[in-house]
Amino acid sequence: MFGLKSGAARRRIATGAAAAVAVAMLATGCAAAGDGGDTGGSGDKGNLAITFLPKNLGNAYFDTSDKGGADAIKEFGGTYAEVGPATGTPDGQVSYINTLTQQGVGGIAISANDPKALCDAIKEARDAGLKIVTFDSDTSPDCRDLFINQATADGIAKVEVDLIAEQIGDAGKIAILSATANATNQNAWIELMKADLKANHPNIELVDVVYGDDDDQTSFDKTAALLQTYPDLKGIISPTTVGISAAARYLQTSEFKGKVFLTGLGTPNQMRDYVNDGTVTAFALWNPGDLGYLAAYATKALIEGTITGKEGDKFDAGKLGSYTVGKDGTVLLGDPFTFNKDNIADFNF
Amino acid sequence: MTTGTTTARTYKDYGQPLWRRILVTREAAVIGALILVIVVASFSVRAFAKPITMTYLFLDIAPILLIALPMTLIIITGEIDLSVASIVGLSSVTLGVLHQGGMPIEVAGAIALVVGLVAGAINGFLITVVGLPSLAVTIGTLALYRGLAVGLLGTKAVTEFTEFWTDLAKSKIPGTAIPSVVILIVVIAIIFAVLLHFTAFGRGIYAIGLSPETARFSGVRVERTKFILFMLSGVVSALAGIYYTLRFGSARGDNATGLELSVIAAVLLGGVSIFGGRGALHGVIAGVLLIGTLASALRLANVTSDVINIITGTLLVASVVITSFLAWLRTKRARPGGKRTETLAAAKS
Questions:
Q1: Least confident among B61-65, B191-195, B321-325
Q2: Which residue among A134, A303, B166, B214 is buried most deeply as judged by most CB within 10 Å?
Q3: Is B46 in Cβ contact with A114 (below 8 Å)?
């Protein structure tokens, strides 16, 4: 048309082509997601489209909990979806809460990255009629409808301190390998562990708390650093599934295997190898699948109006039986469970 | 490609009517791509074509938009500032700690801005006075400022802010769906646009990017210009930090971690050359809006965050690769016509 096209025109074509690629991807994305988008239709008892919003995607723990949620939602005939940020940040979760509010889903089950930062977004969602249930990690109690507590903080702190005390003979130096420095649940447990150690285990000295950011490599490196810094360390508590498996992987091939005891919160599939070869004697956890399952049933009960989330409300949670809402709109899943060489083969999650 | 010599082409380019010179640019292509995404998403994504989408979009991208303004100027000079997100965190923590200590938000905010200014001045000093490369300096201060931010507040988050300010950060311009923060962004964007496109200082910025030597001999005060730009970057990043803190009602050391990459990606997508000397603010603003709108539409279409990252990453790479490829093609085709005219054409574009 113009003989030779100008350089600027070429660049325009370039960006145009790139944009076309993006639009094409947008269109495919929509096509792929179409089935999730339009099925939020409301039945007689309300809109049972429930979306799980974990702290971040690609986390085995939340894969398990959200699968439990999916199973429950399938049982009662709702619509399951899972969205989440790639990294565990509150702003990423806020974007998703906003998005779900716009889409008009029935309810969201969230594991919160920050106790306060999500509250405004949640408030807007609730104003729009969505039911908000937190699980695993709570927001401020006034934000959400219900919190599904995996175990009481006391219970978790106690089982971890008891395990390490038993393993190291109730005396010596220990350290804690936590997740991120701001993780609500981790910090609560750590405080309680400190109190429990002080009150009941005077011969155990907590020398350090380090943060592996729930990242495998960081946790691995922090474990290595801990053992270099404190050569006489007797035990490590890692109350995070990412941390404990990274620490176990380090211990397994290091000179400290069998000398430094490791316990904390882990999943049987991640820890099986280390328990079977003696790197780890015992660790604790709840069943995250049950946690997601219970969160889904609680969301359903709220959407259907069976409960409002006040103390004393009772609801049915399928195979888990009946649950009662406790103080501050909290539902307790149950006591933590201790996994060891004798029983680990019975679990697969 | 038909006949016509390259000399003729050069002449023809300059001889194009004004409307063609305005419409056939990289910036226009980005704006076109943005409109395309909006149109496609409006028709194909449920719940996208609602005013609330715009509200959430602007609330989400406000910090990126703000920081992209000084970043554009810095990248046009051929430098880069990787420490911006860490300054956001540092400003957030400064505001939080001082407010927690009883200082009113106005005063604490002003001090946070000064902290940003100082942080920017330290970058500027190391780059222009000491003469270190900005890439190395700001990688260092990225870690340094983030470290200070996390160190100051430790594992805690400050969440008690005067409701007036947190409400203001999320408020909308009365009678519209546009957040009030857009007014702030427009004002600052106009200041930066005037500075870059209508002042001798701004022409100096382009001159530095094309050739610092030539600029220096032409009377541009290269060091002073860069120093001012890094200070501006620090102040605007601190402002973004204040907004970020108030919007989420949470001051944390890890606020906005990784935001620098979103900013730089948007600036490059907006047509600014990473080698300096080329780019315009309207293209950058369109670039930020394009990435934000695309992400917003994809989230509404239930596309997961990792896939969104893949798509925006591919878009960025595609736009850069296709542009470079066409430039290479142009060079190759122009060769028979003589190298000299090609250099002319390249310098022009």
A1: B321-325
A2: A134
A3: no
Average pLDDT over residues B225-233: 97
The crossing angle, in degrees rounded to 10, of helices A60-75 and A288-304 is 40
Q: How many helices (H) and strands (E) does chain B have?
A: 16, 0
3-state secondary structure of A81: strand
Q: B300: Cβ–Cβ under 8 A, 6 or more apart, which residues?
A: A37, A99, A102, A103, B41, B45, B46, B47, B48, B53
Which chain A residue is nearest to residue B40, measuring alpha carbons? A23
Nearest CA to A109 out of A302, A267, A314, A287 is that of: A302
pLDDT at A29 (0 to 100): 45
Count the neighbouring beta carbons within 10 Å of the beta carbon of residue B176.
12
User: DSSP secondary-structure letter at A325?
Assistant: -
Strands A282-285 and A233-238: unpaired
Contact A307, A325 (CB under 8 A): yes
Q: Considering only CB atoms, which chain B residues are within 8 Å of A30?
A: 44-45, 301
Give the contacts of A112 (CB within 8 A, at least 6 positions apart).
A55, A90, A93, A118, A134, A137, A138, A139, A184
The residue among B278, B303, B320, B331 with the most chain A CBs within 10 A of its CB, best to mutate, is B303
The pTM (predicted TM-score) of the whole model is 0.76
Q: State the first-to-last Cα distance of chain B, in angstroms, to the nearest integer.
A: 20
| B174 compared with B328, residue with greater pLDDT | B174
Is B314 within 8 Å of A21 when comparing Cβ atoms?
yes
Looking at beta carbons, which residues of chain B come within 8 Å of A9?
A: 24
Which residue type, as a one-letter code, is found at position B309?
N
Q: What is the distance between the alpha carbons of residues A112 and A183, in angstroms, rounded to a whole number?
A: 9
Cβ atoms of residues A264 and A244 within 8 Å: yes
What residue has token string 């939340």? Answer: A62
Q: Is there a contact between B307 and A29 if contact means CB atoms under 8 Å apart?
A: yes
Q: What is the ipTM of this complex?
A: 0.76
Phi, psi of A255 (to 5 degrees): -70, -15
Q: Is the pLDDT assigned to residue B182 strictly greater than 60?
A: yes
Task: Test B299 with A120 for CB contact under 8 angstroms.
Answer: no
Confidence of residue B289 (pLDDT cuts 50, 70, 90): very high
A178 and A184 Cβ atoms separated by less than 8 Å: no
A324 φ, ψ (degrees, to nearest 5): -120, 135
Tell me the shortest Cα–Cα distance from A8 to chain B, in angstroms: 5
B48 token code pair = 């996208």
